[in-house]
Amino acid sequence: MAKHLKEQSQPYDGGPQRGVRGPDADGQRSQPDRVQQPGPAAVAARDLTVRRSGNTVLDGLDFTVGTGAITGLLGPSGSGKTTLMRAMVGVQRISGGTIEVLGRPAGSPSLRSRVGYVAQTSSVYPDITVEDNVRYFAALFPVPRSAAAEAIDAVGLSPYAKRRAADLSGGQFSRVSLACALVSQPDLLILDEPTVGLDPVLRVELWDRFARMAEAGTTLIISSHVMEEASHCQSLLLLREGRLLSALSPADLQRRGGSEDLERAFLALIRDAETREAA
Amino acid sequence: MIASARAEALRLAKWPVTWLLAGVWLVLNLSFAYLFTYLSFRSAVSDGDDRLAASLLSQVSMEQLPSTLVQGMPMFGGAIVLIFAALATGSGYGWSTWKTVFTNGPARLTAFSGTLTAIAGFVAALVLSTLALDIAASAGIHLLESEPVEWPAVTDLAQGTGAGLLILGMYAAFGAALGVLTRSPALSVGLGLVWALVIENLLRGVAELLGPVEAVTDVLPGTAAGSLAGALGAAGETAGGAPSAGGTPGVLAILDGGPATALLLCYAAAFMVLTAVLVRRRDV
């Protein structure tokens, strides 16, 4: 959407680095043929550890996420996806290691307008219109007046712009939240389970929109606990119990898991990891 | 901060709650300050009670404007503004919009300063609207009764307007602090109303029996607000909180104007500092 209007982000002079770098299923660093081009990463974590109330929520994560692609953050509920996203946004206190976003420590003030974050719960005022909600967020950033209309259009809500948010369906309501995050025209968009509760048609529609945004240069990190959604991503970070199980592409996941079915392949990786741990 | 204030002003202006609460206050103010007094005046005229009629007409005269303007603010106006501010900040947490603003938008304190500025703008607009409505009502009644309209001194009018801003401003800061403290619009409104309408009055009742409690009740936010209105000449309650004849609930004669003003400024500042610390330090 509005990203189309922006020139390619300044810090990416090394060119876009698509895909992810992290451990394989066996805990080794991924092979160069899956890492592709060098250059600054959208997100780079080194031994990232988060502990809460004595529990280790994220356990020494090492990975990089390239720019201009969709990276899926996948794993069962409770695997640490939201905590990792909060760490990327800079609102999660980390216990160890580092995490850099767009070349700066996560949460740096200069990243605020460059990183969009949509939490699981919609962040929308229900008793004002869609347009007013998006204009509210647009007013916080130095964006052109047309940015609100473009963001609404990007999520397919132009016909509903004048409606009160409370009068929308659940799927439309969550898309208002997405439009509010898009209006600042972020370089990196972090979406926490954006397709939860949406019907299949809307899910496909939304993934198509994400793909177009990635083509236009926006980096997207999207969490989901539905493995079939991994097929929409160029690269995957697979989390389980706070550990990074693997960082690879969907095709690699299918190959390594020995199944075309991504969920089966993921389960195969888990079993393989458990076997190695037991040994 | 200007961008944040503009965004919040846009949101609050489009918010039905803003207009509903402003409308409720203006109707209440018009009804209790002018309409019922005027109806009583007409009734006294019909009964041939000239003395009472003259007294009632003087209550709605332009000269009384500074005290009439603030007489309903310590209790009803304050409660309405408290509800507004608590909803304005509490709803940001309730609907998770603060989460997005605080992560994607300007720095937290900058964003929240914008919110407080927008709320202050609402308070200023409300006081000025009340003043305009009161002028129109008083002038209308006197023209209707073919009585001369005598304007109050400009300094008196400025004093009344300033006092109104201070009283409602303190309650707005109180409400905003509660909204942030509880992170809930419903809980903050409930707690704020219970404090403003119930607890302070109960404590004043207790203070009549227990001397040490009186030292505390004399410096409560409501006491300061009521005393400032009382210092401007609004008829109010006795020191113990019991309403005097014809007095307005919430208006008190406990503190002089100076200490009441200072206390209100201190409370407003304290509430804003508390709010800023909470916004700055707490997790979203």
Walkthrough of the structure:
- The complex is a heterodimer of chains A (279) and B (284).
- Chain A is α/β, with parallel strands linked by helices and 279 residues long.
- Chain A is 30% helix and 23% strand.
- In chain A, β2 (43-52) and β3 (55-65) form a beta hairpin.
- Chain A is globular, with a radius of gyration of 18 Å.
- The model of chain A is unreliable at 1-17 and 25-39 (pLDDT under 50).
- Helices cover 79% and strands 0% of the residues of chain B.
- Chain B has helices at residues 2-14, 16-47, 50-59, 65-71, 73-94, 97-104, 108-144, 154-182, 185-207, 211-217, 221-231, 257-281.
- Chain B is built from twelve helices and no strands.
- Chain B has one domain (2-281).
- The radius of gyration of chain B is 20 Å and the shape is globular.
- In chain B, α2 (16-47) packs antiparallel against α5 and α5 runs antiparallel to α9 (185-207).
- The longest helix of chain B has 37 residues, at 108-144.
- With 284 residues, chain B is mainly alpha-helical.
- The chains are: A alpha/beta (279), B mainly alpha (284).
- The A-B interface holds A 89-91, 109, 112-113, 115-119, 121-129, 132, 135-142, 177, 180-181, 184, 186 and B 3-4, 6-8, 10-11, 14-17, 91, 95-107, 111, 283-284.
Annotation keywords:
heterodimer, A: 279 residues, alpha/beta, 6-stranded mixed beta sheet, 5-stranded antiparallel beta sheet, 8 helices, 11 strands, 30% helix, B: 284 residues, mainly alpha
Mean of pLDDT of chain B: 90
What is the rounded Rg of chain A? 18 Å
- Which spans of chain B of ≥5 residues are poorly predicted at pLDDT below 50? 239-243
CA-to-CA gap between the ends of chain B? 20 Å
Distance between the termini of chain A: 50 Å
Tell me the total number of β-strands of chain B.
0
